[in-house]
Design a protein that fits this description.
Blueprint (H helix, E strand, L loop, with lengths): L12 H20 L2 H10 L9 H30 L5 H19 L5 H24 L1 H4 L5 H15 L1 H13 L9 H18 L2 H6 L13 H17 L2 H30 L4 H25 L5 H18 L6 H29 L5 H13 L3 H12 L4 H6 L2 H16 L6
Helix pairs in contact: 1-7, 1-9, 2-3, 2-5, 3-4, 3-5, 3-11, 3-16, 4-5, 4-9, 5-16, 7-13, 7-15, 8-9, 12-15, 12-17, 12-19, 13-15, 14-15, 14-19
């Protein structure tokens, strides 16, 4: 059994099952940032009935992803607040996973780009909602002393585990056009979606089976208006009283904006240096493997080192990556940059998640993680605007990425400020 192996010997059943969900949902993440946009364009672009131009397809895809961000920002805190009630978190979590898995399978059948995009939006919203509930479960499945380690294990095994269904989907995608009658491009698309959905579902079942909500809000109010009143009071508390949470959220928004922007634009830097499609896939897999190792290293360090100190190290690492981007002229240099991104990518996210879990009220974790996701999911738009402005002004993407040092520097300062504030929810 996997949970009896040496790597997982320190995890109890609930912790292990919780970690497994990161392995499941990361498969969809991997597919969404690689093959799904390609499949969408293959359906949308053309001169046939209902098809559109390449530029229009790119615009519609960008619009779709923006719609997801807006919907998640609106519903996250509301559903999170409702899920904080006794025995509700598992129901919300299971429902969102079920919608996501079903949407993933249905998308494999879509032949219209409009239908494909609508189903993808619903699937991505359900996926994002499941992460809100999943992240908020950390307070229930482990102790405060073990949060850093368990959270890091989640990201670590999510990175490496997601490579398995992705490679199967990738092989089907590559072989599809050359094996008409055996694996047509349509069938290979379905295989990619189906294997991801099945993987996602199977590794979620253990958590659904063993999860028990230990922290919850005692209330008999079943009205949706209850959630809005609760959210208003929580925002008021954060802005007027809980400076530790406020400063952390500001810091998180700044440095995660930088992280997201670098990840989103790393491929563009490589392409400018001559990176082809095969190289892009190699880059993606390289960062996944390195992120797996990096997260495991930080999981061990979290046993003896302060969480804030480790996050600050990750921020400093990304600061150095932005400075290094200025000197990029060759593909081998880009490889070094990709390695650096992988070293800190999972660690900065996992440690941020566990640190936030420690400074919020455990019984309101669903609502608070709904707020957290607003700062997380919508973060990279400022960094992307900086990239766009520099490019329109005639600058290189290398220079644009180097300007992200501002975000990391400010994030560093605000995190130090948060660390100095007392924890009102200890």
């Amino acid at each position: 059994m996997l949970n009896n192996s040496k790597v997982f010997r320190d995890l109890d059943q609930q912790e292990f099952s919780w970690v497994l969900y990161d392995v499941g949902n990361s498969a969809f993440t991997m597919l969404a940032c690689s093959l799904i946009p390609i499949w969408f364009k293959s359906i949308a672009i053309g001169t046939g009935p209902g098809q559109i131009t390449s530029d229009a397809a790119t615009g519609m895809w960008a619009l779709g992803t923006s719609v997801v961000t807006v919907i998640v920002a609106l519903i996250g805190p509301v559903f999170g607040a409702l899920a904080d009630k006794k025995d509700m978190k598992k129901i919300f979590f299971t429902t969102s996973v079920a919608i996501g898995v079903c949407g993933c399978i249905i998308n494999g059948f879509a032949t219209s780009w409009v239908l494909f995009l609508i189903i993808y939006i619903l699937t991505k919203v359900a996926y994002s909602a499941s992460l809100t509930f999943y992240d908020s479960m950390l307070n229930d499945v482990t102790t405060e002393e073990r949060m850093d380690e368990v959270s890091s294990y989640g990201y670590a095994w999510g990175y490496i585990g997601s490579c398995i269904p992705f490679l199967i989907a990738l092989i089907a995608y590559i072989l599809g056009p050359d094996m008409v009658g055996i694996l047509s491009s349509g069938v290979s698309k379905f295989i990619g979606f189906a294997i991801t959905a099945i993987w996602w579902m199977l590794v979620t079942l253990p958590l659904i089976k063993v999860y028990h909500q230990r922290n919850y809000v005692e209330t008999e109010d079943n009205k949706v208006s209850y959630a809005f009143v609760k959210i208003y009071n929580t925002w008021k508390t954060i802005f007027t009283e809980d400076k530790k949470v406020l400063y952390f959220l500001i810091a998180f928004f700044l440095y995660i904006d930088g992280v997201g922007t670098i990840i989103d634009n790393a491929i563009n830097i490589g392409t400018d240096l001559g990176l082809d499609t095969v190289g892009q896939v190699v880059f993606l897999l390289l960062t996944q493997v390195v992120a797996w190792i990096g997260s495991l290293v930080f999981a061990k360090l979290s046993k003896t080192q302060d969480t804030v100190k480790l996050i600050l190290i990750c921020i400093a690492g990304y600061f150095a990556i932005c400075v290094y981007a200025l000197s990029l002229q060759h593909l081998w240099q880009f490889g070094i940059m990709a390695f650096g991104i992988g070293c800190f990518q999972g660690s900065i996210q996992s440690l941020s998640r566990s640190y936030y879990s420690k400074i919020i009220p455990a019984e309101n974790s669903g609502e608070y993680f709904g707020i957290y996701d607003i700062f997380s999911k919508g973060a990279s738009f400022i960094g992307s605007a900086v990239i766009a402005a520099v490019k329109f002004a005639g600058g290189t993407i290398n220079v644009a990425v180097s300007l992200l040092t501002i975000f990391f520097a400010l994030g560093f300062v605000f995190l130090k400020m948060a660390d100095k504030q007392p924890n009102q929810n200890a």
